[in-house]
Amino acid sequence: GAGVSQSPSNKVTEKGKDVELRCDPISGHTALYWYRQSLGQGLEFLIYFQGNSAPDKSGLPSDRFSAERTGGSVSTLTIQRTQQEDSAVYLCASSVRGGIGEKLFFGSGTQLSVL
Amino acid sequence: AQSVSQHNHHVILSEAASLELGCNYSYGGTVNLFWYVQYPGQHLQLLLKYFSGDPLVKGIKGFEAEFIKSKFSFNLRKPSVQWSDTAEYFCAVTSGGSYIPTFGRGTSLIVHP
Questions:
Q1: Is the Cα dihedral A50, A53, A59, A63 positive or negative?
Q2: Chain A to chain B, count of Cβ pairs less than 8 Å apart?
Q3: Where are the alpha helices (DSSP H) in chain B?
């Protein structure tokens, strides 16, 4: 596609339920990033994938969060047993190679609301 | 760990006013610096970046930013803002060989016509 695509754009869930957020990066981009933006906060790094390398999971806030990237393309962020503090906009970005100084292309995000 | 401070959280200006948004980072080594912008209803996009060379960087839509290493700063400027500059502005830094940008909290800019 022309840009980074995220789905769903909005997700409302009940506390304790699991959710899956999807990201389809720009074709040919080998690097993929997940960030979280809470109200009034900046972008909080969650996880980074680069090619076939092991992902950098250093930003995941708890073991309820996990992500995978299949075939070097589509990525899914899973949040298990959602809590109200998980409510945020989840942003996905991709870049050509993930090199230093590279421009990130962002999707429109998934607005997650946990009731 | 790297941290990025944007001290102005909300800025309100009239059209034609000059703009300067502050950005300071904590890591003192080699850095790459970015400003991203998010216009209402749109996704985040790159406004400008500093990689090396001339510390004064020109971006799109008349924006510029100056890297001052001694002050750990990368402030964004525009001499005359327009209503269409209303947006959220984020400063970001990569450093220490990391490929992962650290973002500031963002500054909400509202420009009144």
A1: positive
A2: 57
A3: none
